[in-house]
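Database export, one record per block. Field names are fixed; values are copied verbatim from the stored entry.
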Amino acid sequence: MKMTNNKLQVLYLFVFTTICIVINYIECVPREACRKQIFKTNHMISLLDDDQKYDLIEYLLRVFKYDGMAEFLYPPDSRFMTGRRARDLALMYHRIYRNERAIQLKLVQILDNLMRDLDDGQKYQLIEGLIKENNYGAEQTVHFGERGSWKSEVKERRNILNKAYNDFLDETLKGYRMCENDDGKKCILVGLIKRTLNYQLTNEAECNGGSCIITSTEWITEPGVLSRIPPVIETYQDKYFPNVQRHVTLFLRKQGELVYWDSETQDDSGEDPSDQE
């Protein structure tokens, strides 16, 4: 059956309009808009007291699986975004923007339980109000490190989460033994901490008996290239210290010795080329 010219014109118009809507929807979330949302989320997390940060971590552990939690919370490093096609970048920016707004909604709920009766539009308005009241709304008046670049915002997220994870591990879960009576939370936190130490890394975390096994599975070997490598396996175990009445998470060396491990992020210098935009 042949289509009339009018029907073809309507079909072409429909397809053209649909494509334009999709493209415009993606393009309406540029890199700078994402960076500003990461900036806002960082500041909102910094508003939380320790108990509220623990509420956030408990919520994320409950709702997301390990990989989902990492993807949801960690904006990608610039090195992972280098060399990608324009459309792939647009989709990535759209996902980052969506994730950041979703985190902000949860943060507002934690900051103010009265939010339960508001719709999403009203919640977003309150987000803007909270940021403005704390002098976080003015563009570029408050910066992290290097002029609020993509790199510095991502690094600040890494530092904020690293401290929150370590505090949760050392304080909230100090009475629990890793991979025995902690529902696997300690092992997940160690894996997430390892990711904050090196954003070029992806890994897996799982309990095996009373040990936490962290397996590094992929690295960004060069800008924009994610490569599989021979797995690097690390083992972590808890040791109980009766003098302080807590279980402390330690690294198990190949020789069988349990030692303290460096779980705090280190400052790095320099600017990624992609930040010079």
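Remark 1: The chain has two domains: 7-172, 177-268.
Remark 2: The radius of gyration is 22 Å.
End of record.
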